[in-house]
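BUG: 3D viewer hangs when loading the predicted structure for this chain

Environment: internal workstation, default settings.
Expected: structure renders.
Actual: progress bar stalls at 90%.

Input used:
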Amino acid sequence: MKNLITPIVLIFLSAVGSAQPPQSKAGNSFSFIDYQKTFPRPSEALQRKADTLQKQFEAKNLVWPAKYIYIRSFKYDSQMEVWVKNDIKDQFQLFKTYKVCALAGTLGPKRMEGDYQVPEGFYSINEFNPKSTYYLSLGINYPNVSDKILSDSLRPGSAIYIHGSCVTVGCIPIRDEQIDELYILAAYAKDKGQDFIPVHIFPVRFNVEKSVKYLESLTKDDPALKKFADRMEDAFDYFEKYKQLPVVMIGDKGQYIINEVPPRKPKTLIEEKAVKKPPMEHLTRNVGTLVESVHQWPQFPGGADAFSKYLETLGKDMVAYLPKGIKKAYVQVEFIVDKDGVPVNFKVLRSVKDGDEFNDELIVRMEKMGTWKPALLSDKPVAKKMVQTVAIEAPEK
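Structure tokens produced before the viewer hung:
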């Protein structure tokens, strides 16, 4: 028969590495979270981040921990989104957007070993690696069924991960302080029974005009790449409309087929507000009363010297995110150290011109600075507003 269509069994049959925790001495199986705690890095990440993640969920009126998570990444836009829900019938809700901090190759799917391409397509997490060379990592099941049909039959490539450290030869790197969050979210979802954790990797955000135009420039003389990108856009449109995962099938030639695709909006009708990248989600709270005077100011973990070193390191790391042509900046940031010591409600008061993405990255980093000792008033912890200047300056060559 011609034009066979096969359900995308690669998603549902993919095994998850470290999926089955060993039996305890008493004969009882560990939970997946307990199993991860037997490894130093996940154990430390859980101690450091689980409470913070729970508070971030509460601030967004989300139920912690999420029973289902969905990860989608956009290569050209260098972003990775994490969506969550707690009932299979519910719509997914956006929890956080991470910056993908390095990219190898160009747009288009991975087709052979050594091409330095980040895959594009529909995957799932198939490995939790607590001893990764890049701190922590989550493996994805490349090559999937489609890739095995369309890629080099002898050397399609393998070992594709979402990992820490900003280096890559075909993987998806995010910062260490972000991969530990993602690792924990995925571990909790698996612990709750989500063996299939989907990871969809798109070439671009299809609702951002600049990104779409760049993709069109690459595909105008490449019909095969254009057809592939169109199917990826079908899946993007389905999720944007329904906030549910599309049913993805594979034809006999390896092509993706998306079920029940909504009518595509003409390119001329792309909303103007969609041209800009959506702002990142930040940790906000309804703090309530703020006091002006306190008996003891908030204290950074480790004290004043540790805070100075933290700001110095932060300033060096942020150099890479300065807008083009700017080598120096003194950025003033306001935030609140809440009465439980968690820094929240960050606001950039003074920054560089056209620095929206730069400001987002700075806030994301500062939100991870750790829990302070809260301010004290009459020996009781209170919320206190702070204003801090961060010096960012590129080193002289």
